[in-house]
Design a protein that fits this description.
This protein is of the alpha+beta class and 158 residues long. It folds into 2 domains: 42 residues, Arc Repressor Mutant, subunit A (Orthogonal Bundle), CATH 1.10.10; 82 residues, 2-Layer Sandwich (Alpha-Beta Plaits). Helix content is 35%, strand content 19%. The protein is built from 5 helices and 4 strands. Strands 2-3-1-4 form a 4-stranded antiparallel sheet.
């Protein structure tokens, strides 16, 4: 775990709100000079705390109207079969997120597609073609209440 001070936490908070902020704008918002802010941002990037900068797209405005969560149970739990599943699912553009979970299922997929017909094709043709799937269970999103990518930033305790 990395030690973050108040300034690091504030930088991360500001960049999570608007990743397009330039170093000069960050320094103004923080009441600090340019160079220390620049060096802190570069350090946060170098340490992998800031992984990348992205544009968040409104999925519905680009025709991706259906979001589903798909639980997957594997038939076999060997390392090789697990790695094959992860590699195959990672290559599927419909899968936005994939989590290895505990409980009745092994994986949880967040899938985004145009409509129910496209989800059915995804399920039957892509997931259905994988050899190690034991069972699937789909949950369909009816309404999005909260969707955030921002983590709360608190300075590390010393």
């Amino acid at each position: 775990m990395h030690n973050l001070d108040d300034i690091d936490a504030k930088i991360l908070h500001l960049l999570q709100q608007d990743a397009t902020l330039k170093t000069r704008e960050l320094s103004e918002k923080l009441n600090l000079s340019y160079t220390p802010v620049y060096e802190r941002v570069r350090r946060l990037e170098k340490e992998g705390i800031i992984k990348k900068y992205v544009a968040l797209v409104d999925r519905e405005k680009v025709g991706k109207k259906l979001m589903a969560f798909c639980n997957i149970a594997l038939k076999e739990h060997s390392k090789v079969m697990g790695e094959k599943f992860v590699k195959a699912v990672s290559a599927m553009s419909e899968v936005m997120e994939c989590f290895n979970i505990s409980g009745d299922y092994d994986f949880l997929l967040k899938v985004v597609v145009d409509d129910m017909s496209q989800y059915q094709q995804f399920l039957m043709q892509k997931l259905g073609s994988l050899e190690n799937i034991g069972s699937t269970h789909s949950l369909f999103v009816m309404g999005e209440i909260k969707n955030s990518s921002a983590l709360e930033m608190l300075p590390s305790k010393k």
